[in-house]
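Please check the following.

. . .
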Amino acid sequence: MGAGAVRRRPRRPLPHPRPRAPPRARRRGRRGDRDEPRGARGLTPIDANLVEIFSSVQGEGPDVGLSTIFVRLGTCDLRCRWCDSPDTWLPARECRIEERRGTGAFRVVANPVQVADALEACRALEAERHRFASLTGGEPLLQPEAAAALARGLRALGPHVNLETHGLLAEALDVVLPHVDVVSMDWKLASDVRRASEPKGTPPAPFHAEHEAFLARARRAGRVVVKLVVTTASRDDEVDAAARAVGRVAPDATLVLQPVTPHGPVRERPGAERLLALAARAERCVRDVRVIPQTHPIYGAL
C-alpha cells in the first residue's frame, strides 16, 4: 500500500445474520449490460432527489442504537396517518447535508443531487465508522436506479446497507436488492394508510397481496425485517393476516410490532396490554416477534 493510501476498515459481521440465498448468475456481455447500476463506475452520472443526509443512530427496529448514516430520498406514494416526515411526500427542492458527524450543522444544496456528490458527503461524515448506512424516505424505490447506485457506493465505503421501504414496489426492489444487506419493509394496514392517488374518504384498498409479493423477493437479502406500526385503529384480523403471511413467506424474518409515535391526527398509542396480546398472537406464526417503539424521539436525535 503506497504512501497516502487510505486503509479501509474491515466490514464487521452483520448483526443478527441470516443465511444468504445463492447469488444470482451475472450475465456476460458488454459492460453496459452488466447487472450494476449505471454510473457506479463513472459511466453516466445519476441524479437523485434527496431530502437530507446526516449521521445518527438507528431509532427503530432490531438494530436500534447502532450508528447509522441516513440518506433520505424524496417522494412517497402513500399517506400514513402518523407520518412524521410529510415533507418527503413530494420531490424536494433542496437537500440538507450534515457537514460534520453529530454536530447538527447542515448546508443546503439544490436538487437534484448527483449520486457521486451524495457519496462524497457520506465519506465526509466518516461513513466507514458507522455500522449501517440507511436508504430511507419518502420511498427510495420510487428512484430505483439512484437507490441502487447509492447502495453500491455506500457499501464500498464500509457500512452495511439497510433499505427502508414501504414494501410495495417488488420490481423496483430487484434493481436495488443486490446492493443491500438488510431490507426493512413496512407492512401497511389499510385501516391507517391510503395511497396518495386515492382521495380522502375513499374505501381503503388492502396492501396484503403486494406485501406478500415483495416479501417473497426481499427474503433473498441477507436479512429481512418487517415492521408493522400498531395504532388504536389497527384491527386484530389485519395484524393476524400479516403475521401469517410473514411466517409462511419468510420464516426467518423478524416481525417488529411498533406502537405508533403520536403525530399529526394520531394523538394516542395503544397500551401495553394490547401490544403484548398482539405479540403473543403473532408468535404463533412467526419465530422472531418483537415489540419495539421508536427511540430517537425520546432523546431528541434525528
